[in-house]
Amino acid sequence: MSSNSLSYNDQGGMAVEHASEAGQETTPTTGSGSGFGLFRTDYKKDDDLKEMLESNKDSLKLEAMKRIVGLIAKGKNSSDLFPAVVKNVASKNIELKKLVYVYLVRYAEEQQDLALLSISTFQRALKDPNQLIRASALRVLSSIRVPIIVPIMMLAIKEAASDLSPYVRKTAAHAIQKLYSLDPDQKEHLIEVIEKLLKDKSTLVAGSVVMAFEEVCPDRIDLIHKNYRKLCNLLVDVEEWGQVVIINMLTRYARTQFLSPWREDKLFIEDNEKTFYESDEDNKAKSAQIVKAYVMDPDHQLLLRNTKPLLQSRNTAVVMAVAQLYWHLAPKADVGIISKSLVRLLRSHREVQYIVLQNIATISIQRKGMFEPYLKSFYVRSTDATHIKILKLEILTNLANEANISTILREFQTYVKSQDKVFAAATIQAIGRCATNITEVTDTCLNGLVLLLSNGNETVVAESVVVIKNLLQTQSTQHGDIIKHMAKLLDNITVPMARASILWLIGEYCERVLKIAPDVLRKMAKTFTSEEEIVKLQILNLAAKLYLTNSKQTKLLTQYILNLAKYDQNYDIRDRTRFIRQLIVPNEKSGALSKYAKKIFLAPKPAPVLESPFKDRDRFQLGTLSHTLNTKASGYLELSQWPEVAPDPSMRNVEVIEPVNQWKPQLGKVKTTKPAHSFYSDGDEEDEEEAASGSEESSSEDSSSGSEDEAEEDKSSSGSKGSDSTSSSSEGSDSESESNKKKKTKKKTTGNESGKQSALHKTDSSTSEESSSGSQSESEAQVDSDSGTDQNHQKPKSKMKEVKELIKKPEISLLDLDDFAPPPSSSPIVMPKPAVLSPTLIMDLEGLSLSSTSIAIDVTSPVYVPAKPHELLHRMSGKGLSAQYHFPRQPCIYNSKMVSVQVTLSNEADQKIEGIHIGGKKLPTGLQIYEFNRIESLEPGSSITVSMGIDFNDSTQSANFQLCTKSDQFSVFIQPTVGELLLPVTMSEQDFKVQQGKLTGMNENTTSITLEPKNSSGQPAVHKIVNVANLGLVPSGLDNIHRFAAKTVNAGTLVLVTLELKESLTADLIVNTEKTAIGSMLLREIKTALSQA
Amino acid sequence: MVLFIIRFHCTFICIFILSKINLHTAPHPVVLGCAPAPGTLNYTRINTMIHSLFLINSTADIFLEKHWKSVVSRSVCDYFFEAFSKASDPENVPPVIPTPHHYLISIFWEKTFFVAVIQNEVSPLFVIEFLHRVAETFQDYFGECSETSIKDNLVIVYELLEEMLDNGFPLATESNILKELIRPPTILRSVVNTITGSSNVGNMLPSGQLSSIPWRRAGVKYSNNEAYFDVIEEIDAIIDKSGSTVFAEIQGVIDACIKLTGMPDLTLSFMNPRLLDDVSFHPCVRFKRWESERVLSFIPPDGTFRLMSYHVSSQNLVAIPVYVKHNISFRESGASGRFDVTIGPKQTMGKTVEGIVVTVHLPKVVLNTDLTSTHGNYTFDPVTKILVWDIGKMNPQKLPNLKGTLSMQSGVPKPEENPSLNIQLRIQQLAISGLKVNRLDMYGEKYKPFKGVKYVTKAGKFQVRT
């Protein structure tokens, strides 16, 4: 009753809305006629609200808006308040404003002309200096679904797409979809904006723009080519929702661009392989050819590698997205890694379980092995929801094989007894499927099922009957006993399907149960009229079959049944009766068919195939809505088949400007051997590569997803080892124009590639074509360098041994690089990594327009080396042995990631000390020590200086170790100051500013300091600073600004220090670095140094 | 009835067929001369991930709706209600329901359904995960995510939804960011707000959103700097009738409550990280360092969050802390059954087992129980047939026992399956897998934080079949 009158009330409300909408100018009170007295209270309220909105007090307005939002939330119409609300759009109160926005977005479509009043406010806000205001204005503007403002929106989006703030650009990406749904005619313009935003390097924008791409122009796959590698590399740092969208898009992309990794038949680029292996031993080549028939595109690998860590995401959607990517793209051998993560998701919420189990079910049909180790994770708990139970059952059935069937069946026995009868019935079907799939257990299952026939529950019995029927059909052996048993059951079973099944069985095998069959028919004839249709049909069936085989006993019964059925209410049954009568009962009119009646009725029937309901689901992409529903959802994009021939991979080459030019000159000039070696080693170890993927993978991941500077470090450390020409030439390249640099990268690429696969002719020509726009001399130089590597390449064998030794050494960071691009494939191996990879969004904030210029950062010699030693071991506690250490500020000779430390050991005792060495080390994780050589003896009074290397892992943790002599052990520790964890670098002032621009936000530490009078002028202050930290000087155009640059020893992260001297003994100190810890510590130390005498 | 209408926050009940007609026929407003009428536009492909959201309580009333694009009529929920009425239990409502023009994806969160309306192909997990994130945010803001709390904070809910989703695509879902945008309600603040008229909406862009650490607020300040970690392990197990373990595994989480000033960079290391078989992390954890060094290195979000969850490799044998002796039987003739359950300690590593609760879903035919317990007390709900026996702390000297008879409906076949026992328990100061936190280091800030690690072992889905 109450709900009735309420709905009437609601009705009233609706009707009022009509009235008020029809005549907007009329006051609502007149609209609510006397007929709707019930609603009047509310309408009074509306009046109140209007008054409140028109008052001067923000608090009243706010209260009114809150109540209006409440109405909206309940789905009540409050559109007649529009004029009063829209006036407040320009309010200063932020909360009020937000609520007005909520209202506006909800009702603007209905009140278009009034909504236009608000547009100018937004247009003004779009120019606001605050990015938040710009972004929110664009958000609301684009959410107002008023067609007349489409041009304004278009303009706003275009502007916002080139906004400096990535947050605004992200909003622009969102607005694209909104505009597109409002006016699809704008598609072309919008695609332009998408194209532009796709180039954006901000992780903030990436997810949103890919989303827009998927909505607006999912078929324009060509827009992705140039951004593919960037997207792959950014992926880890994109927010989780964006990751899902990007992964799904990349899955589609990869399916159109790469060759299938699943191919059985061999596909390899004959020429390359041959030239490559010719130099090698023959049999090795052969085995390699067999193993490595197919070579994956490096870009394909890049995608797989960069998505793998995301399997560890806490967001289940991301994990699922990666899982489906691996399922659809990865080589069969690699897919296995997803199973663990998918099983992990089963711990999540019920809804997540449901989706994940569905996907596992589909996977498990095709690849049993993947989930077999996790069999027990699919065991059913009594508290699971029914649909979860059934899915688990499905998976258990799919996973069943000879080895585990006994365990599974034991588990099934428990399920059969479940109180949840739907589930119990499903279990019986599952047992049936196991029985047909695994012949060994068919008899066991059948016996088990027969036992179930005596079960108290009807559903269970009925289901068992049906399943037994199916099983018997598949069995050629005699099962007379079972049929007899079932015939007896007929009296008790009432479930129609089960009765029908028994009848069908008896009919089908009536020759095996000769005596019983007619008796059954007799009983059924009695109850015929009260049976269900499906049972009646089977009775007819049985009668016909018996009549044909045993007409003596059953003729009359059949006649009787046919007569009964003739007058049945159901036309199906009447039809069937007529048909059967004509077919089996001989009379003069009966046609030619009656001769074959027996053959027709008792033809051997093929056994039903018990199939998984998930059999056909693999036509849909995993993880999609369509897959879940098993029907094509609207907007579902079919995953294309793998292409026969891969499209040109060079499309993905980006004109990336990377700071890798440093080792380019090496190729042609100084150290040609090294790169060639590592290339060779790569090819050499081709077979092992897969096996050794463990360690290699992680190292490659390091370099791939590492920060820009890290990568730079890698290269510079490998490149600048002793070669001065390297640094000079790359410094020179700095000043070169951008286009020049692009070419350099290309060139590098070619060199790189030629070393790898000697596919010189092809790539060479293509590169020179591409670079033909540049100057001629450039391209000539390029050929030179290429041929240089080529020659190198021709005489590899003699160097094989040497090469292998080199491989062992971890310092060769080139190896890591190679990992990027395993051998033959015709795609160049330009990794856009450093330029794009930056995990920090901050870079994008300001450095966007600038970030594309590469810089040369080289380690220089320290400006100043403080000689002040630190005490390591005092002679008193060292029983005469004293030790002091200091930091010579030189790059460590043992390992580029170590800080070199010089330890001076003195013997201040009377006897000589023997066997000084480093004993047990207690190092925090990440720290490493390169020990000095054992000092056999130290005479009294003498001292010796040894050098050691410590990798402090860019932290000021102390390295604890024991200094041992022959007889004693002393625990000592070396703790560096933060300034010693750096290596000075040089760069131009311009580069400095560029880099500094990238390192703002949380990467910037600033403070203002009061200087000690002595330090107020430039020189002493600089001296203080270089004393504190191992920084390199950067030339500065201004006298009062001093700049210093360094990189951290371990990770190679840039550390930039700026000191700006001001009047009256104050100065501003700025430290920019990604390592926030180092930044703040450095700031503090310099500050202390400068404020002390 | 009159009362019901006057109450402002009354539940909106309506008959959907009626409202459907009304909403569909709602006339379009006056059309401007030059603009094309909205009806003429091509609306066939409205691209939105999440089109609308309906919140529905367990009595099938819609109590909140929010649309991110054009309004979708409430009548779309009819399909949901249909599935709802079919399902015996709210848990059994299928999470994905297709309707002719839309798809409904729902989650069930503490008696509330969150139903998202989808129009196009989308990853269902994407929506489900997002809805859970919404529910968690509500929980975080209001302390509980129930119909009442949502209705009481309707405006904040709306503001939150507005920020979390733009055009159907998730925008800001990190609780730290949302809290900067919209301040959670506190009693004090709401009092102050009503007096001063100030707002609970932040007026600056959360700095986190723009940095590389979108999960942390900027400018955090505490007078007491504390970092607490809770290592919580749950034993999932199925014990069969005879007491042998069918299946057991350990799932753990590390929840952190971090109140540290500034921008601390933490490193948490374990004594035995190799135990962890499968892990998933909060986005703040640097995956590379885990891969290479097996330490958790992260700049934490402010406040409480789940740092990681892990799974202990299944090769390890799982210690089962308790054993259960049970004797439950139903007699066909006497319309009664016997119930006798005793719990005792098994492998507890010398710790006390606390908080033991045994939950039994008795068969439908059981009418009532007549039991006596030596420890704790028990309740039986004759409607849901759930028997809950709250034992509390285990006393190893005198084992808790619950014994007595069950009265059953007569003339009905006896249930063939004995009910399974679901056991909850808690063991303080023990991580059953043996996982141990080694140390926590902090970089980037100077102060010394107060650090603490707590270990708890709980029973997860711990089921004893009888």
Describe this structure in a few short sentences.
Chain B: Pfam families: Adap_comp_sub, Clat_adaptor_s. Chain A is α+β, with helices and mostly antiparallel strands and 1093 residues long. Chain A contains 51 helices and 16 strands.
Describe the protein's architecture and organization:
The complex is a heterodimer of chains A (1093) and B (466). With 1093 residues, chain A is α+β, with helices and mostly antiparallel strands. In chain A, 55% of the residues lie in helices and 9% in strands. In chain A, the strands form three sheets. In chain A, strands 1, 11, 12, 13, 14, 15 and 16 form a seven-stranded antiparallel β-sheet that branches. The radius of gyration of chain A is 40 Å and the shape is extended. The termini of chain A are far apart. Chain B contains nine helices and 23 strands. Chain B has three domains: 50-196, Beta-Lactamase; 226-318 and 432-465, Immunoglobulin-like; 322-428, Immunoglobulin-like (Sandwich), CATH 2.60.40.1170. The longest helix of chain B has 19 residues, at 124-142. Helix content of chain B is 18%, strand content 37%. Chain B starts with a helix and ends with a strand. Chain B has 466 residues and is of the alpha+beta class. A nine-stranded mixed β-sheet of chain B has the order 11-13-9-8-23-21-16-19-18, with no helix packed on it. A five-stranded antiparallel β-sheet of chain B has the order 2-1-5-4-3. A four-stranded antiparallel β-sheet of chain B has the order 14-15-20-17, with no helix packed on it. Chain B is globular and about 70 Å long. The model of chain B is unreliable at 1-46 (pLDDT under 50). At the A-B interface, helix 1, helix 4, helix 6, helix 8 and helix 10 of A face helix 1, helix 2, strand 2, strand 4 and helix 4 of B. Chain B: Belongs to the adaptor complexes medium subunit family. Chain B: It is found in: Golgi apparatus; Cytoplasmic vesicle membrane. Chain B: Its main location: Golgi. Chain B: Pfam families: Adap_comp_sub (PF00928), Clat_adaptor_s (PF01217). Chain B: This is AP-3 complex subunit mu-1.
